[in-house]
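Exercise: predict the structure of this protein bound to PPS.
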Amino acid sequence: MFKLDIPSRPELFDFHGVSMTHHYTDNWENLQNFQARPDDVLIAAYPRSGTTWLCCILDLLYFGEMSPERQTSIPIFKRVQLLEGTFTLREGPGGTPHVLRGTDTLEKLPTSPRLIKTHLPVQFIPKSFWEQNCRIIYSTRNSKDNVVSYFHFECMTVIHPEPGDWSSYLQRFMEGKMLFGPWYNHVNGWWKKKQSPSNIHYVFYEDLVEDTGREIDKLCSFLGLSLSAEGKERILNRVQFDVMKSDNMVNHTILREMDFNISSFIRKGKVGDWKNHFTVAQNEEFEEDYKKKMKEDMLQFRSEI
Ligand code: PPS
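Solution:
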């Protein structure tokens, strides 16, 4: 079990125009000066849009054949390290605190490539990733399922701010006062960056649910990897929802900061679960607001398949 030192839920504060908590800003200078390597692969996503699923796929693509024990012995959050995280770890009650910084861990990571995860909006990404023209995979999901998943997650973990009730949460999501900022700015900011010369591949959660194999093929062609039919089958088996949900190296049950009596980290895995949460009135208000915020953008999402 890992025991982080989190005495109470962190507060949100405005950080360069984005709502953040100190866990993701404490190490800002080192983060901004982080030295990316040309072969680094960055997996970027707004929280709760399929990041872990993609992390597992990429980890298997790069290291599945070479070191199968990696998947059975190392938790996914260590195999694919969060760039911006800063947490204090305490070994036993009253034990010596030990600060864990994503940047430090990544600097020591011996793998090539390094698989790196981030929830940062595009404007916060350290400039070395652009200078090195690193491959970046951006995972995204329709806003309604995203907010539902984010709500359940924030209810179950003290790592994030207090979520409050569902209806006030939904309002706050529309106002954009969420950890890592407004969903709307996040997905559009990354999308605009993709239109400029860059090395970004977008993956839609709905597409992954619809046809995981097809999306793995697209990933391989973006990453310049070749995969045998058997290798692909092995990956497809390993990343099925039920398999990941029961895999202790993936489902985060080893983290004491998550209360699995409240929800699950790998929860439902469906497109359209929002229908079980939004009232008719909430849906109308959300749609109206969505049209205003997304009117100039070409980005199209599917909220059902
Ligand atoms: S986090 O906390 O930001 O890292 O969360 P993230 O991994 O981005 O997203 C969690 C949601 O992805 C779902 N998930 C999957 N769906 C289908 N198949 C597979 N294999 C899978 N793995 C993860 C997970 O269940 C969360 O969505 P919800 O809607 O809450 O179930």
